[in-house]
Amino acid sequence: ARFNSPAGLALDGAGNLFLALETVSGRRDWVVVKYSPAGTRLWTRSYDSGNGQDTPYGMAVDRRGDVIVVGTSEAAGGYDAAVVKWSAGGTLRWKRMVSRPGLDLIEAVAVDADGNVYAAGDRGESGGAGTAILRSYTSGGKVRWTATAVSPATYTLFPLTTTWRHAGLAGDTA
Questions:
Q1: N vs C: which end of the chain shows fewer Cβ within 10 Å?
Q2: What gap in Å lies between CA 45 and CA 26, rounded to an integer?
Q3: In sequence order, what E strands does the chain have?
Q4: For residue 31, is pLDDT > 60?
């Protein structure tokens, strides 16, 4: 497999480094690698939707050392957004899809002090309009809430940040 450029880089509280990459071996999939503070590879995990091209866009690490990666997965009729969480030991905890006809992208992710996950992206609409989406999940992967903003233009999202128990999203329209 050949690796494309990194999609995300994050550190946990113990100084371990997580790296999210896209691999190319006939089709595109996600790879997440965990390294020790000394640079030793601890584990490697992959995500393959089985439907074609999968592209990671961002990642975050929670206080337990669990890693959350967001991106897209090819699906019938377009692309679905994916949010995937692995434990500090590399066990898949959960994966959630944001799916509707067309193009769904999750491009930014953050985690608050309670382990709640915030994923932000865009739902492509017909006629060039876009709908920015911000969705919050519990640490166990249950949807807490979803907020959207519709624009006649296309959204460009910037990295998502959290402060204690509040999420913020920034972007611009084209």
A1: C
A2: 18
A3: 2-11, 17-24, 28-35, 41-47, 54-61, 67-75, 78-86, 92-98, 102-111, 117-124, 130-137, 143-151, 155-157, 161-163, 166-168, 171-173
A4: yes
Instruction: Quote the CA–CA distance of 114 and 22 in Å, as a whole number.
Output: 29
What is the pTM assigned to this prediction? Answer: 0.81
pLDDT of 126-165, one tens digit each? Answer: 555 567 888 999 999 999 998 887 665 544 444 444 444 4
The amino acid that residue 48 corresponds to is D
Establish how many alpha carbons lie within 13 A of residue 35's alpha carbon, considering only the half-sphere containing its beta carbon: 11
What are the pLDDT digits (tens) for 81-124? Answer: 889 999 999 999 999 987 766 667 788 999 999 999 999 888 76
Find, among 126, 32, 30, 46, the residue nearest to 78 by Cα: 126
In three-state secondary structure terms, 128 is: helix
Select from 46, 150, 61, 133 the least CA-distant residue to 97.
133
